[in-house]
Q: What sequence folds into this?
């Protein structure tokens, strides 16, 4: 799914906000994922607290969002920016790839609940961008 | 039969009473038509797909009426929706995948409207409710 020029601009506009709030946004999105689809906790075992306040949820959320930020900063090569992460997920972690889209949907809800201007245009641009992220992350399984 | 916790029922009722349901649903429909343009094929709206267009508002009222019926009978949404499901399957011939897309747009519009009040817990409860609605709407497809 190719992003148009204006869609790339909409995604890049959010980079600063996402960078400043990486841990908070990531933790919120993960907490939503764990509550709406409890089976996803299987990939994050042994956490004492699966809410957005949990120390490990904050740390892991921050890591995920920072990786997404790398992709935002290399919008013309999302696959390349996520290559290493894709190999880790596909050949070591073995996360079932359908979960990547579930996380993306929850991240969209997180952003919508934190931004006052989450217009259909911003939503569409991010949805297309995250679809590229999901494709990249799913690319090294076989 | 779906098992509902008291907190889930409370969240679902609170969400609907905290918003203007027709306005939020009209915005969710407009979001659906923008982010997932193929959904427009089911509506003869003569290119008027914005949230304040008359035909979108009329359809939003129908959706809200149905959701209110579901909220009023959470223990048996399937029976409440059996005719609606047959209509969508046999008369309107809607691809049931689209129900999940409207669901997703409703969640994002609720997050946009309720902001911090759309907590992960409230989100999870309403997500479960919409999953039940989507399942009930899909039941008469054979």
A:
């Amino acid at each position: 799914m190719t992003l148009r020029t204006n869609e790339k601009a909409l995604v890049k506009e959010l980079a600063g906000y996402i960078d400043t709030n990486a841990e908070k946004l990531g933790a919120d999105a993960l907490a939503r994922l764990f509550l709406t689809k409890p089976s996803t906790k299987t990939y994050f075992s042994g956490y004492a607290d699966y809410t957005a306040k949990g120390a490990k949820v904050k740390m892991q959320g921050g890591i995920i969002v920072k990786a997404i930020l790398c992709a935002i900063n290399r919008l013309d090569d999302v696959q390349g920016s996520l290559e290493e992460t894709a190999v880790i997920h596909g050949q070591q972690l073995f996360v079932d790839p359908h979960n990547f889209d579930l996380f993306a949907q929850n991240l969209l809800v997180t952003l919508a609940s934190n931004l006052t201007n989450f217009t259909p245009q911003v939503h569409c641009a991010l949805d297309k961008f995250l679809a590229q992220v999901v494709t990249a992350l799913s690319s090294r399984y076989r | 039969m779906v098992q509902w916790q008291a907190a889930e029922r409370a969240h679902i009722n609170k969400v609907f009473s905290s918003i203007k349901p027709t306005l939020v649903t009209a915005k969710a429909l407009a979001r659906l038509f923008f982010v997932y343009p193929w959904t427009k094929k089911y509506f003869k709206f003569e290119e008027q797909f914005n949230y304040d267009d008359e035909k979108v508002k009329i359809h939003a009222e129908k959706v809200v009426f149905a959701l209110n019926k579901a909220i009023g009978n959470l223990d048996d949404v399937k029976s409440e929706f059996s005719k609606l499901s047959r209509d969508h399957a046999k008369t309107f011939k809607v691809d049931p995948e689209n129900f999940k897309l409207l669901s997703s747009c409703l969640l994002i519009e609720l997050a946009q409207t309720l902001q911090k009040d759309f907590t992960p817990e409230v989100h999870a409860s309403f997500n479960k409710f919409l999953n039940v609605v989507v399942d009930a709407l899909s039941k008469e497809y054979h």
